[in-house]
Amino acid sequence: MLLSTFAAMGGLVASLAATAILTRFGIGKTRILSGVACVPVVALTPLAPALPGFPALWLGVAFGWAFLVVVISVAGAGIIPRIAPSDRLGTVMASNRLFVLGIMPVASLAGGAVATWSGVQPVLWIWVLLAGASALPIALSPMRTWKRIPASCDSSGWD
To answer: Is residue 65 a contact partner of residue 42, using CB atoms and an 8 Å limit?
Structure first.
């Protein structure tokens, strides 16, 4: 219960801080920096048994992970509605939710299978790599320079 409380607190603090973070860094840098920041936070999970303060470390990981996930979510929240044509917005949002949320049960089953086969530690390190890799699509796209959503991306001119 304490772990869940710290995770919820991380999300709450992020929801309060996200606007200031976005104002300072912009959409692109916020998403990239948050994705990269996931690496040390998530890396604490497989390293935790070897680090001092092992039980308390889980609280920091829960807080940090939830904080970063919420900041990334807030930074990307307005993009799809602005760039998708209004007559296709429902389809685009449904597709986005399918690929973002639909992969979770598949990844959970795959992670469980790999953990059964190779152990928990390798799966946790795969999580670290994937968390860091989440910044790559943004870092390699034009979005990396966005302070705000450019007017040229507004879907009102699309057919």
So the answer is: yes
pTM: 0.79
Separation CA 21–CA 37 (nearest Å): 14
Angstrom distance (rounded) from CA 79 to CA 8: 25
DSSP 8-state symbol, 148:
S
Q: Domains of the chain: which residue ranges?
A: 2-149
Spatial CB neighbours of 159, under 8 Å, sequence gap ≥ 6? 85
Q: What's the Cα-to-Cα distance from 151 to each of 72, 80, 145, rounded to whole Å?
A: 21, 13, 14
| Residue range 99-158, pLDDT digits in tens | 888 888 998 899 899 999 999 889 989 989 988 888 888 888 877 777 776 666 665 544
Dist CA 112 CA 106 (whole Å): 10
Q: Which two tokens stand for residue 78?
A: 């307005």
